[in-house]
Amino acid sequence: MKNLRNVLFYAITIGVFSALLYFFIRQGTLLESGDKVVPNPQNGTSSWEQFIDTFGHNLTHPLATLLLQIITIIIVARIFGLICKSIGQPTVIGEIAAGIFLGPSLLGMFFPEISTFLFPTKSLSNLQFLSQIGLILFMFIIGMELDLKVLKTKAQEAIVISHASIILPFALGVGLALYMYTQFAPDGISFLSFSLFIGIALSITAFPVLARIVQERGLSRTKLGMMVITCAATDDITAWCILAAVIAIVKAGSFVSSLYTILLAAGYVLVMLQVVKPVLKRIGDYYSYREGLTKPVVALFFVILMLSSYATEVIGIHALFGAFMAGVIMPANTSFRNIFIEKVEDVSLVLLLPLFFVFTGLRTQIGLLNDPHLWYVTGLIIAAAVTGKFIGSAVAARFVRQSWRDSLIIGSLMNTRGLMELVVLNIGYDIGVLSPEIFAMMVIMALATTCMTGPALDLIDRFMPPRKSDEMHAIAEPSRFSVLIAFASPQGGRKMLRLAEKLVTKQTDEQHITALHLSPSSYLNQVNTEEYQFETFRPITEEAQSLDTSFHSLFKPSQNIEHDIIETANAGDYDMLMIGIGRSVFEGTFLGKILGFTSRIISRERLFDTITGKERLFHADVFDERTTHIIKSVKVPVGILIEKNLGKVTNVFIPLFSAEDKFLLEFAKKLVATGSIQVSIMDPSHTVSQEAGIRDALASIQEAFPEQVTLYYENALEKDFLQEKDLMVISLASWKKAVESHSVWLSHSPSVLIIRG
């Protein structure tokens, strides 16, 4: 009845007001006069032609063009970034390559119609301004990621290395300008302006790319990693100050007239540090929690950012310096910076920054280098850049008593240029100091020096391997039983530590537990790494204190968590790897089908194994494909903990379904050796215990611990029995059979430790 009433109301309402609309429009047409109506030029064309004409106009509208450009840029940049990541290069290389691919060097050369449609000349100004906003946000983040406290603690050594890595390539760049000025300098540009810009372009180090490489190689928590990060940060600050002075000189036309600009810039820096920074500190301390950063507070900080950028643009030292400075003076409160970086980073790095790469690629005309002499000059630029930066950094590092290995690593990392180099080059192009030919040569130099960083580090590791004392991996001390627990969530790690503590003996010289946490490197930056590590391990540390035990922590960023877990487990002297899994373990499995879960992701490793004939493409195991890959690849026994509110571990149940489950008795001995655990061992069929070896082992355990061990020779897999237990320890083979046979008792089981012997 109610539905009929609603339908009647709807029909009457639509009908009455449609009739009223028709009446109004009809009356309005009677008011038209000849001078009010403009003839439609399309009146003589067909409806289809009118539609095509309108559609074509919409397709080439500036907003539609910009949106299509953004879509194309993000997709192509992601594809190239993933390709570079898969071959061990920073994703920034792929994004720069994507820009060159979409520019006149490739797409414009081979598919000029598509290039003209996607990037018409009149649309490039919109793309440029939008990319500049992305750069402003990015430089703001870079400023915030600089930890000035670290600079103070290692200032002396960092300044020596950093300034040596600037002055040598700067001098080589100015010397190279003597050779290049006559042929390549644009008209109206003085030698002073041209040479200073070539010098600063060769002196830049890409702090963000370097920081990412340091994290991905697990160096961020080592002395070497902290040193090179500090050097890069010092380099960044020094280079940007020099760049501001160079821009002032170029725009003013002479050094004397540029002094006014430099004085204004010095006054601006003084106001930012002495006036604005203390005010922002008070605000940041007050609103350092996530809920406190409301829209008005965030708006205030964005206004500061834009005002700072505006001020430096008006002064004449470029808006990007203002954005960088605004980031540096942001409240030093780590919590505040983490929250603010999270708000800005994704939009800046994923949406807007790729626009800058592609805009740079559209400017880069590699086709202009159509003469062997031009490629010879390009080679000279690369040689001068590498020689100056690599040798300058390495020699200075050795002078401050770094080892030869560490000195060479510092030199290789400081030679990284990447994005920061492109920023400088685009500034030079915009103010007319760099010609299109020099701009293309410099872009190639930026790509080459960034690409060679990874291979250079690999060569150093190969010919000068790290000492065993280096903190690259936590190698377990020799012990009777050593457990590596690899955890994702801190609470899951707490419960795995609780269980691992029951498996190792109480004697200090025999006990060893290592807790491993790998975090996707994209989640971390130089600001939040230390705090993130502390918060991740805090629940486990608290649990260890309550248990009166100890553990070794191992934390590092990772590009491939599954692979790094396998490598760590196989490289260390561990007796067991324990991993924790939740309900996602059932995705794509038989049990997952029962529970209604499905998996839509196929990993690159599984696809490769399929191509090479090692595995089938479609996953048919009782675990998800990542867990299965770890189980198959780790050489030591693997324990998979399916945790169901595991509180205490005092009542453990171990079923023996086949003779192959005999190895579980060794774990039973470890558990009862604690003196606080009751272990129930079940032989449901009464056939397993008939084997002489198993029968003797059972008798030995029961004789040694008569009050802690109970034997069952009947099938007691009932709800009441299982719910009395805290933990079930079962072999991998038996678990698979239970899942594949859809055993009813699975739904009543307590937390489960599945062991692959």
Sum up the structure in keywords.
8% strand, single chain, Rossmann fold, 31 helices, alpha/beta, Na+/H+ antiporter like fold, 3 domains, ten-stranded mixed sheet, globular
Please, could you describe this protein's structure?
By secondary structure, this protein is of the alpha/beta class. Helix content is 63%, strand content 8%. It is globular.
Overall structural domain count? 3
Basic shape? globular
Oligomer: single chain
User: What is the structural class?
Assistant: alpha/beta
Number of helices in the DSSP assignment = 31
- Tally of strands: 10
Task: Using the 3D structure, state the CATH architecture of the largest domain.
Answer: Up-down Bundle
Low-confidence stretches: 468-479, 583-620
Radius of gyration: 33 Å
Helix content: 55-70%
Sheet with most strands = 10 strands, mixed
The CATH class of the largest domain is: Mainly Alpha
CATH topology of the largest domain: Na+/H+ antiporter like fold
The overall average pLDDT, rounded, is 78
Strand order of the largest sheet: 3-2-1-4-5-10-9-6-7-8
Proportion of β residues? 5-15%
What layout of secondary structure does this protein have?
Layout: H1 2-29, H2 47-59, H3 62-86, H4 91-102, H5 107-110, H6 112-118, H7 124-145, H8 148-153, H9 155-184, H10 191-203, H11 207-216, H12 223-252, H13 255-286, H14 295-315, H15 319-328, H16 334-363, H17 372-399, H18 404-414, H19 418-430, H20 436-451, H21 453-463, E1 481-486, H22 490-503, E2 511-520, H23 529-547, E3 552-558, H24 561-571, E4 576-581, H25 590-595, H26 604-611, H27 625-633, E5 638-642, E6 651-655, H28 664-672, E7 678-682, H29 692-704, E8 709-712, H30 719-723, E9 727-731, H31 732-740, E10 751-756
Parallel strand pairs: 1-2, 1-4, 2-3, 4-5, 6-7, 6-9, 7-8, 9-10
Antiparallel strand pairs: 5-10
Helix pairs in contact: 3-4, 3-16, 4-16, 7-15, 7-16, 9-10, 9-12, 9-17, 10-12, 10-19, 11-12, 12-13, 12-18, 13-14, 14-15, 17-18, 17-20, 18-21, 19-20, 22-23, 24-27
